[in-house]
Amino acid sequence: MEITEIITFLGNPLTVLTLLPITGALLLMLVHWMADDEKREMLANPIRYVNLGIALLMLLMATLIGLEETFGLAWGEYLYQNCEVGAVSTGSCTLISSIGVSWHVGIDALSFPMVWLTTLLIPITMVVEWEAKKDGPDRAYFHSLILMMEGALIGVFVSLDLFVFYVFWELTLIPMFFLILLWGGSDRRYAAQKFFIYTFTASVFMLAGILVMYFNNDASWVGNITGKSFDFILMETSTNFIASEGLRSVVFLLMLIGFATKMPSVPVHTWLPDAHVEAPTAGSMLLAGVMLKMGAYGFLRLGVTLFPDQVIQFQTLLLVLGMVSLVYGAVVCLGQINLKRMVAYSSVSHMGLIFLGVATLQPLGIAGAIFMMFAHGIISPLLFAVCGSFKHHYHTLEIDSMRGLAHSSPWMSAHMMVGWMGSLGLPLMAGFVAEVAILIAFYMTFGWWVVLPALTLIITAAYYLWSMQRTIFEGGGDVQLPPTMRDEEPRDITWHENTGMLILGALAVIYGIYPDFFGMFEMMSDWASLLVENVIYPPEVNP
What we know:
Elements: H1 3-11, H2 13-34, H3 37-72, H4 85-89, E1 94-96, E2 101-102, H5 111-128, H6 139-158, H7 162-171, H8 173-183, H9 188-215, H10 232-236, H11 245-262, H12 271-278, H13 281-306, H14 308-313, H15 315-334, H16 339-359, H17 363-394, H18 405-408, H19 410-423, H20 430-446, H21 451-473, H22 495-513, H23 520-536
Helix pairs in contact: 2-3, 2-6, 3-5, 3-6, 5-6, 5-13, 5-17, 5-22, 6-7, 6-8, 6-13, 7-9, 8-9, 9-11, 9-12, 11-13, 12-16, 13-16, 13-17, 15-16, 15-21, 16-17, 16-20, 17-19, 17-20, 17-22, 17-23, 19-21, 19-22, 20-22
């Protein structure tokens, strides 16, 4: 890169959002690793505060971007692009010139909600786990790994070069693997290995699809070995993008396998419950809050945008995957006695709703699917934060071991109620908005078959209410403490835990009452309308 390109590179806010957390985390871990034992102990707390400070700065930057674009420009196009399409095609912003890799980042109405959600959840997870991870020789690495996760996640959502997109996609695996392996439960080694093997293997299918797209388009790059480019925008506007219809279908299915495993969707979901049960609270919050959304985001960005004909062709497959995941997740929830495992299977069910929303091929359904990604990204971390505090204070996750939680831990009980109400789709909660939008679009496309997902959602609600009644209210003033408590007195959550849960609970209510807060639902609707009207059903094929 030339000096002017470097200045442009570093001056882009999306570049800062992506690279500063990764660079900062690596430097902080290096400083702690190089210090002697005495200095490590002294540095542990300052490193935690620096990690939190960087995370809060990233949240401020993302919020300012949202405010500027919400009140200034339309969200239908890519904003804050690091280089123009023409510059990419001629090699500007080059990273690997020989194969056509560029630093090309941008943000639109699909990616911004995920970017903002990521920057919001990172400091919240740090605060929730502030006291839980205050001891131990490796405690300084804990928050640094969370910060590294932030940069990798944002990189996935803003990358417009598919080579860079894949690098960040794989990079997210590393900090999550170590979070589970080092700070997870008793079976953490098995869970960490299963998580890594499943998600890495699935990403190989996605990589195969990316390579086929790379070699089968006319997105040229002057002067490189292959004459091709990994740039997404150039592929999207290519006039000769994978000419063979059969090959397009194969690539679409490769993408579907990779992204469905990440969401996850039945039948490639089995890694998720184990990972959630064994992961530390912060790991579960980020895994459910953002990492699962990578799969849905990638499918919408690459699968739907680049292969609209295949979306129509495989509409029935998407419908089946969505319904099976929705029903299976709800039914399995009925038999769970582990609180974390129940919340994990509810995530499988909610991810099924995203496929159902896309399968409708309606702007409202796709907007509802995107809003479900966002709403679930708020509600599910709240539930896992509650699970973590329950485990921390009562030393168990067994639902049947506790009665009268409202009497011994009123704040924990209140947050548990808010989380469960949001997850079951109670009116005036964020989950309700997404579910109603998807069900209305489902009826518009499939008619009275909407009864099936509606009944499934009712089953889920019934089990949540039953579990809540037993755990929180049953027993009245006669509190039944778990045997794991022994002679300990029950305690309510700490102010650190309470702060994080209050923010998430408040947002779940705010977005349930006013879905367009911060312009969220409007930008999602605009993006979905443009997708359906210009990509899935372009004007030339409209009747």
